[in-house]
Amino acid sequence: MTTTRTAEQTLADASAWWDTSIIDIHPGKIAIRGYPIEQLIGRVRFPEMIWLMLRGELPSAEQAELLEAALVPGVDHGPHAPSIAISRMAVTCGLPVNGAMASAINVLDDIHGGAGQQCMERYHEIDALAGPDGDLVEAATIMLDRHRAAGEKIMPGFGHRFHPVDPRTAPLFELLATAEARGVIGGRFARIGRAVEIALQRPKGKLIPMNIDGITAVIFCELGFEPELGRGLFILSRSVGILAHAWEQKQRGRRIMGPMPREIPFKYSGPARRDLPAAFAARGPRAKG
């Protein structure tokens, strides 16, 4: 049975196709989460704007400061970080800045870029295991055992391949302590992070300190962001470094730079040089035309 629809109904359906509570635009008018854009400009800082976009309301000044502090140290970690290296190599291959940024951001997935989200998920797992009155270290130990049994060898957010102690962690913990003292955060996830350090140290007595992903995971959890948004926030932070490196490389004008200088050979691990088998060699060169 065919239902006849009026033009007004069709227009209403089309308008509702991309329903959004984020932005409202009409000729000469723009409002974000209900706030006119002209009122936001010059009054709302970028971290506050991120919060408004993601959460629907403006943060307190203290919440915005803590979010900003978490975004600052993740912007860059040098050309040996794959995302940064890719942005530079992409520029030397002729890509414009937007292409270089897109290429670099696309590699920020589970292995390179996903540790923060994964750490947040495990913090929430510990929170649920411990309940309101449980032992956080015991809950962290149970969580670690579960993931080891599933074949996971590392705890995301702890240890670092480059830094024995990540220099970015302690300053952020100080800001967390200040925020907790002022009642900005509850401190639950900061204690969970410390509990993970203790649980990791117990088996062999070796400290595996929290790294930048672990501490920013604490902050994002304390501020109430969902784990998947934690990855998005990290990507926002790292995109600044990606842009800076792409632009710097563009100014240098070099073409087609690979991951290492051509004077440094790569390691070949295939068969030794050998002749083609006689049956193939007897065929002769393929005729042209």
Largest sheet: 3 strands, antiparallel
Give the proportion of residues in helices.
Answer: 40-55%
Major β-sheet strand ordering: 1-2-3
The counted number of beta strands is 3
Report on the architecture of this protein.
With 289 residues, this protein is mainly α. Among the domains are: 29-59, no CATH class; 82-251, Cytochrome p450-Terp, domain 2 (Orthogonal Bundle). The chain contains 13 helices and 3 strands, in the order αβββαααααααααααα. It has helices at 7-15, 37-40, 46-55, 61-71, 82-92, 97-105, 115-130, 136-149, 169-181, 188-201, 212-222, 227-252, 278-281, and strands spanning 23-26, 29-32, 35-36. Helix 4 packs antiparallel against helix 9. The longest helix is centred in the last third of the chain and has 26 residues, at 227-252. The chain is extended, with a radius of gyration of 26 Å.
